[in-house]
Amino acid sequence: MKYLGIDYGDKRVGVAVSDETGKLAFPYEVITNSKDLFDDLIKIIEKEGIEGVVVGESLDSDGRPNIIQKDIDEFCANLKAKSNLPVMLEQEFWTSVQAKSITGENKMHDASAAAIILQSFLDREKDI
C-alpha cells in the first residue's frame, strides 16, 4: 500500500510518499498552502497511486492539541471528502526541527518533516 505523508502548516505543506510496499518514506515536495492546495494534493495522489494519507498531529509536550490542530482536523476532513481515501493522524513532535538538523535549513525541510511523520507511521504499522 502506498501512502502520502503530510506536514501541514498555515504557509507551507510538506509532502512525502512511501514506496510501493509501504515500508519506506521519501520527501516529495513542498506546496504553498493556498486555495489550490487540495487540487495540488489530488494530482499527487492520482499520479503516485496513493491509497492512504497520514497527516502529522500537532500536540504540545503535554500531549494537548496545539493551536494549529483545529486547522489540521478541518484539513483532514476536507481531504478525506475530496480524495475518498483514509486519512490518519500520526503524532508529530519537533519533526521540523529534526528535519532541519538532518538536511539543514532548505526549501525541502517541510517535505523531510513529512517523511519523518510518514516513516513513524509506517514503522508503527509494521509492528502491529
How is this structure best summarized?
The protein is α/β, with parallel strands linked by helices and 128 residues long. The protein has 4 helices and 5 strands; from the N terminus they run βββαβαβαα.
Write structural notes for this entry.
The protein is of the alpha/beta class. It has one domain (3-126): Nucleotidyltransferase, domain 5 (2-Layer Sandwich). The chain is 42% helix and 26% strand. The chain is built from four helices and five strands; from the N terminus they run βββαβαβαα. The chain has a five-stranded mixed beta sheet with strand order 3-2-1-4-5, with helices on both faces. The radius of gyration is 13 Å and the shape is globular. It starts with a strand and ends with a helix.
Essential attributes:
128 residues, alpha/beta, Nucleotidyltransferase, domain 5, five-stranded mixed β-sheet, globular
Domain unit count: 1
Please identify the top-level CATH class: Alpha Beta
Taking the sheet with the most strands, its summary is: 5 strands, mixed
Annotation, overall tally of beta strands? 5
Which oligomeric state applies?
single chain
Class from secondary-structure proportions: alpha/beta
Helix and strand layout, with pairings?
Layout: E1 3-7, E2 12-18, E3 25-32, H1 37-48, E4 52-58, H2 69-83, E5 87-92, H3 95-103, H4 109-126
Parallel strand pairs: 1-4, 4-5
Antiparallel strand pairs: 1-2, 2-3
Helix pairs in contact: 3-4
